[in-house]
Structure formats: C-alpha cells, structure tokens
C-alpha cells in the first residue's frame, strides 16, 4: 500500500524580493489583479498560517474558504507526477483566492527516481537518485506563476518515499536522502529560480541528540524555511504516544533550529487529520490545546495544519477531507486563527 506523505508545510515572510510576470495561462480575471511580490524581510510579529496537503482538483470555493479563514499559504502532497497543465490550473485557483503556494521542488517520489509501481513493489536495494533534468524542467514550466511562494525539496529526509521506513524491501535508514543530495537539490532548484526560498520538512522531535542528517540540513543552511512536524495524535497499539509533545519539546526544538541555523524560518505543524490507526482523529479539545501551546513558543514564525485533503488523492484507502470528515476541526481552526488575530 502506498504511504502518503506526512509533510508539514511551512512558509514565511523571509528576506527574498522580486516580482514575477503573470504567465499567459492565467485567466483574465486574475490578470486584472495587482501583481504580487515575494515579501521582503519581515519586521512584524504576525503569525503566518498555512494549510498542508491541499489537493489538486479542489473547487474554487475551497481556496476562498481557506483565505477567508486567515490561511496565508498552502502546500501540496502531490508534485511532479501530475500533469503540468493541471498544476497551472491549481496555481490559478490559488492566486485568484489571494493565497500563495509552496510547490514540489524535490520532495516527490518522481524527483528522486521512483515510479508509481515502487510504492508496492520496490526493487530490492533501490535508493533515491536525484532527477536534475526532470526537476529543472518542472520548475522552468511553473516558476513564472505569481502564486508560487517557495520550493519544497525534502519531506522528512525521504522517510515517506517508496524506499522509506515502512516500505517492503527497504534498506532504511541507508536509503535516507543525504546532506550532499540535498545540497545538490537546492543548487539545481536555485539555478532555475534563484528568487524564491527553499523549504524542507523535518520531525526528529523524539531525539535527545540531534542526528547527523538533521545537523547537515541545518549547519549547511540548506533550507530557508523549516517545517517542524509535531503531531500529537501518533498512535502505537491504539494508544496516544505523546499528546503533550508541543508543550514538552516544541519550544526547545524551535530554539534548537534557530541556534543551529540563525535566520531560518520555523513553522510548527499541528495534527488535523487521522490515518489508518497510525494517527488518531484529533478532538477539538486536543487541537485547541496544541494551538494554544504553539502560540506560547518564542520566535515561532508560523503555524500550519495537516491536512486539508482529500487524502484519497494519494491513498485511495483513506477518505480524509477536512471540511467534511473533519468539519468540527476546521471550525476550531477558524475560531483559533480569528481569536489569535484579534489578540484574544
């Protein structure tokens, strides 16, 4: 069975500037809007809110609903395996709603040389191999779209690729994406689009000693934006393992990233999903708790929520779709954002 990506999307107001011309594919109603520039260095304490795992075929109303709720930036769990014209249509909807998007710049299985068949039938010994030409062609095709905010080059060091931790025939952790591979990925993306930030997702919140691959990511300043996954709904044998993870280690993990990589933007990803006995369904109480604990973390740049869905886009066995199957959680997210913006 295919493992769906467990990302966290995080994006920021960071020290990048530059305006992008509208692509010819953008409809007339979008062409009439004012061009949007990547924000310059932020001097405000505004918390950026993002929504992760946004599907490619959603109706326009989903995007406007997220924008109305206070979401600033969205991210995807799909990438280079999709048709480029469908990706452009998706970005048109993002832009029309006044949102920004973090797009695949190397987190997807396609970017690392895997195929659809590898999810269930991974050849023994197959490892991630960076696909420079494929990635650069994808970025060239999309980079002029004004809805793009950043490029995501890594989701948890490849743990959620077909050669990841739970795959049949895997050699994990030997199949982890290396520091040198990530450095090359960043360079190849910036060679095509030097004006946008590089984003990476990580967790490692249960490690007392910082792992070498995490040190490599931070000490080499590979990512401008770090999304930190702190999901309080992780299960083992049906039991929650660490419901107070954000309270217990959120502040220390954010501070650790900032210390090792000064100037890095950090967003914290909260659980708003369930998945096959591996992640339990959050309650409104647990989501509110996680949100309030996140707001207490000093120097945290943003909060994101995983995920919008539909999850069955990348895993046919899961039907998670936040505005329907998690309607109570979506209502809680909206209330929390609204109250935080009002200073309550």
Please give a structural write-up.
The protein is an alpha/beta fold. It has a single domain, classed as TIM Barrel. It has an eight-stranded parallel beta barrel, surrounded by four helices. Strand 9, helix 8 and strand 10 form a beta-alpha-beta unit. Helix 8 packs parallel to helix 10. The longest helix has 16 residues. The chain is globular and about 50 Å long. The protein starts with 27 loop residues before the first helix and ends with a helix. 48% of the residues are buried. The N terminus is likely disordered.
Short description:
This protein has 344 residues and is α/β, with parallel strands linked by helices. It is built from ten helices and ten strands. The strands form two sheets. Strands 1-2-3-4-5-6-9-10 form an eight-stranded parallel barrel, surrounded by four helices. A two-stranded antiparallel ribbon has the order 7-8.
> How many independent structural domains?
1
What share of the residues does DSSP label as strand, in percent?
5-15%
What is the spatial order of strands in the main beta sheet? 1-2-3-4-5-6-9-10
Low-confidence stretches: 1-44
How far apart lie the N and C ends? 44 Å
Q: Provide mean pLDDT, rounded.
A: 88
Helix content: 25-40%
Q: Biggest β-sheet, characterized? A: 8 strands, parallel, barrel
Total DSSP E strands: 10
């Amino acid at each position: 069975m295919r493992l769906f990506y467990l990302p966290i999307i995080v994006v920021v107001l960071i020290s990048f500037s530059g305006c992008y011309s509208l692509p010819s594919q953008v409809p007339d109603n979008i062409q009439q809007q004012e061009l949007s520039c990547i924000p310059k260095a932020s001097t405000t304490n505004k918390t950026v809110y993002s929504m992760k795992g946004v599907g490619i075929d959603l109706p326009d109303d989903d995007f406007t609903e997220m924008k109305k709720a206070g979401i600033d930036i969205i991210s995807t769990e799909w990438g280079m395996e999709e048709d480029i014209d469908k990706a452009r249509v998706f970005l048109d909807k993002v832009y029309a709603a006044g949102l920004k998007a973090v797009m695949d710049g190397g987190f997807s299985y396609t970017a690392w040389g895997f195929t659809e068949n590898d999810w269930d039938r991974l050849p023994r010994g197959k490892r991630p191999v960076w696909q420079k030409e494929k990635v650069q062609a994808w970025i060239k095709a999309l980079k002029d779209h004004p809805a793009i905010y950043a490029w995501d080059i890594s989701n948890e060091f490849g743990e959620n690729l077909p050669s990841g931790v739970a795959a049949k025939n895997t050699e994990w952790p030997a199949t982890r994406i290396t520091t040198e591979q990530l450095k090359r990925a960043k360079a190849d993306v910036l060679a095509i689009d030097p004006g946008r930030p590089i984003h990476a997702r990580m967790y490692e919140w249960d490690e007392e000693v910082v792992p070498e691959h995490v040190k490599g990511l931070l000490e080499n300043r590979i990512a401008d934006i770090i999304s930190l996954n702190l999901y309080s709904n992780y299960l083992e044998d049906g039991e929650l393992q660490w419901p107070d993870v954000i309270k217990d280690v959120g502040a220390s993990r954010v501070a650790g990233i900032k210390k090792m990589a000064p100037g890095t933007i950090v967003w914290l990803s909260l659980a708003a999903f369930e998945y096959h006995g591996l992640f339990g369904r959050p309650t409104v109480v647990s989501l509110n708790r996680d949100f309030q604990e996140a707001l207490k973390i000093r120097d945290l740049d943003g909060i994101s929520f995983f995920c919008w869905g539909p999850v069955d886009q990348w895993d046919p066995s899961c039907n998670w779709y936040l505005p329907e199957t998690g309607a109570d959680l979506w209502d809680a997210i909206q209330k929390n954002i609204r109250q935080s913006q009002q200073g309550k």
